[in-house]
Amino acid sequence: MMVKRAFSLGFVWFLQLISSIFCIVDRGQFSPSFLFGAATSSYQIEGAYLAGNKSLSNWDVFTHIPGKINGGGTGDVTDNHYYLYMHDVELMGSLGINAYRFSISWARVLPKGRFGEVDPVGIEFYNNLINALLNKGIQPFVTINHYDLPQYLEERYGSWLSIQMQQDYTHFAEVCFKAYGDRVKYWSTFNEPNVTLTLGYLSGVYPPNHCSYSCNSGDSEIEPYIAAHNLILAHASAVNIYKKKYQVKQGGMIGIVVNAAWYEPLRNTPTDRLAVQRALAFDIAWFLDPIIYGDYPPEMRQIVGSRLPIFSEKERELLSNKLDFIGINQYSTLYVKDCLFSPCDLGNPRGDSFVQLTPERAGVPIGDSTGNPMYYVVPYGMEKIIMYFKERYNNTPMFITENGYGQTSYPGTSIKDLLNDTKRIEYIEDYLEYLNAALRQGADVRGYFIWSLLDNFEWTYGYTLRYGLYYVDWVTLERIPKLSAMWYKQFLNEEKTLEQEGSGITTIHKL
Ligand code: NOJ
Prior knowledge:
TIM Barrel
């Protein structure tokens, strides 16, 4: 006990020192209504993979295939949040966040999709979570679908490759609006479809593991485009139902979340500058141009041609409902080299954007490395990507739905080093500074969520990458605040008193 207290007092002192050296942003620079939260997703934190009547999700099945996940991890237990959610809501309350972004497990609420009943046990879990959050004054910011879907739909008709998925997703979304919409004011239809569909149908490292360029399953020439088409229309149909039947009464907003890396031209040439635009189009505009303007971006049409589906008149009409906000997951920036006009090795699978992504220019990395080999610390990328969205999408309201720093973690990695995460603090502060720069230029950004509240199951990296503000011991499941949790708490409560973990020096003044 004494040791723990001395440790936490030491932390607070260290925090003050760090903040006085590095502190550049403060809460007061953002409007009081600005959302400051933390984010998670169902498969990554809930565990309880067989609780109630839940069916297996595509990720439950995928992670059990030997060799798919680094270290062989699965989400069977992970943070056990399904059983520990009240404790986790306590942690959020003590941090002082005013919003929490989480997702709903489709297989928990509708184990057989629209071919079966709504499971009241699943419904109740999220009801309890939402009520507990609201009791603490924390706004639930709900992602309807964050990667995981009932395996049943995969097996029955091939999930996103079938037009039927539009109907199933719309049904799922409506079940959520009905059950939770009286209390949930922020909905995102999907998280990062630009990641799931390319990794699922092009490289095949995510389920359903289709990768005809590098393995023998699926048809990567067309499947990513078909899957995206169905998903875009599923989004449009859910938005349509929300706007027509629920929004006026419930008074919420609905949007979609995309993964949004920023790109810099590798060389200062017109072709590399064009390649940057192409990379952004294949990443972001692939989903947002249809949703906001009714069609795929011209940069894609030119290259993909007839492999890119066409929206019918009726579908365009559905798309005209658009969205209320764009969710931006921003972590990193990479250099882009043109491969359309200049020769280069595109690698396998190549993708259609004809760009080569690289973190180095003349042997010099674009920023400090992080635990994720493709994520570098490039804070200015935050401002640039926000300005890209502002300009391309007419300053549609935006939320930074994810930003965070991953630490590698292997058996034997020092816990002290993981807890003492000064690099994460610097990363967040620097990115917030650039977010602020975008706000000063008029960008309509309304919130910021740190990925993640807790260390959790990091997809193909399994448990070898930690993003949490709270360290999680994978044996005892104890949550221990990292230095960054203390920092966030102090940032959010600048004029307030820090949680009394030790007596005496608990008041931290504005630094
Ligand atoms: C994006 C995803 O939404 C989330 O699930 C993932 O864990 C983080 N980025 C970190 O890679």
